[in-house]
Amino acid sequence: MKAIMKIKLQTPEPLRKKTRVAAYCRVSTGMEDQLLSLETQKRHYEELIKSNPEWEYAGVYYDEGISGTNKEKRPALKKMLSDCKAGKIDRILTKSLSRFARNTTDCLEMVRKLLGYGVTIYFEKENLDTGAMESELLLSIMSSLAEDESVSISKNSKWSVRHRFENGTYKLGYAPYGYDVKDGQLSVNEEEAKWVRWIFSETLKGESSNSIANRLNELKVPTRRSNHWTSTTILGMLKNEKYIGDCLFQKTYSDHRFKRHANHGERDQFYEEGHHAAIISLEDFEAAGKLVGQRAHEKGIKKKDPRYRKRYPFSGKLICGECGATLKRRINITGKQRYPVWVCKRHLEDISACSMKYIKESDLEYAFMTMINKLVFARKEVLHPLADRVGEQAKKSNLRRIEYIGLRLGENEERARTLATIMSKGYIEPALFAKENNELTAESEALTAEREQLIKVVTGNDERIKELQRLLEYVDNAKVRNDFDGNLVTAFLGSAAIDSRTEITFHLKCGLGLTERM
User: Fold this and answer.
1) pLDDT tier for residue 184 given thresholds of 50, 70 and 90
2) 46, 86, 445, 498: most buried by Cβ count inside 10 Å?
3) Contacts of 408 (CB under 8 A, 6+ apart)
């Protein structure tokens, strides 16, 4: 009988899955020697990972020229954490705790999160492997040391920078719009500088930072960091001393938590005049700064606040006699002379829509004070008789009108009752009743409102009479004066129609309309 041999099926051993390994490295400045160090680190980790047969290369993540004091500022680190969460990485190699995280909280938070994803970290300098740790105690101690080291390095770096501020050897690492930087020195970028000059010119003409930004966006003028100009960007440029060739050092500082703050006197600042070529003259820079400061102050006052006032005495009061639009204040520049003028808004937008040209503010002020002086001079011959006549005439005629309105309201009431009676008996259609009744109601409401206004006039509560009394009180105690007083415009002027470049009609709050030549 033949023997039968049973052969067991040999199953191959499952292939061991390779560990997907990534590396993270960072340098904190963009200096050339640091960037060389970064390239060395990247090359080192790439070769190290690829040379291990049990590892699969998952990439090298790196942040260059970025402070490591807070993980939120490092895009490559955030990307690596995201890839770990997505299951693309099993292990991370990094040079040291100080390169990975410079404060204990961030370090522990990231390690716990990564361990939750099944990802371990190996720190070469400290020979620390989170995959072999039984507790977080050692990691906490080591990261605290890294944080102390970071503070020490930061202090040394700050001392070095401060020393260079003091002796004038500090080299800038960035350039504002309008400049280029090379080897720490600023040079004018003419293509951008022309727009810097335009921004200051428009500001001095009275344009707001918001309208300037909108205009730049319409013209599609490129920016440095984005494709959109904002009011904040314009305001920052108008306050930047670098445009007059000077340089203020240490505008910001970092606290012990490595958070950056604006320096409002907490740290010493260093100002160097003539640091580089200027784009804007000192006179234009200071004039623009005053305008910006004035607007900021005024915007801080609420309109309903009793302290609120218009920006200029004539603001909102000047009306174009040709098209009816309001006038806007601007600054005209002729050679080295600057003077304020008022221009029709519609004329500014479209010359063909309105031909009214600008009016000098000095001419407006002269015409207004001439009118006031005439009222002061002729108060006994003109204003007092006018006030008496207006008051007496108004009282007599208004009393007659009040009596008539009373009779008319009584008649309407009687008609409404009659209308309701015949409607109830079915003598008229509901639609006709509604039409007649609505007409009576509307007429009665209008008559009632008119009567209330007339009663105010008769009893001395009419606003125009009150304004005339205020004007009389002023002119009775005033003297003829040559200087302009904006408070008088606010107190007595309701509006002013610019009839032409040589003639203006002032409409006072008391109802008087007086024409003056300019």
Assistant:
1) low
2) 498
3) 447
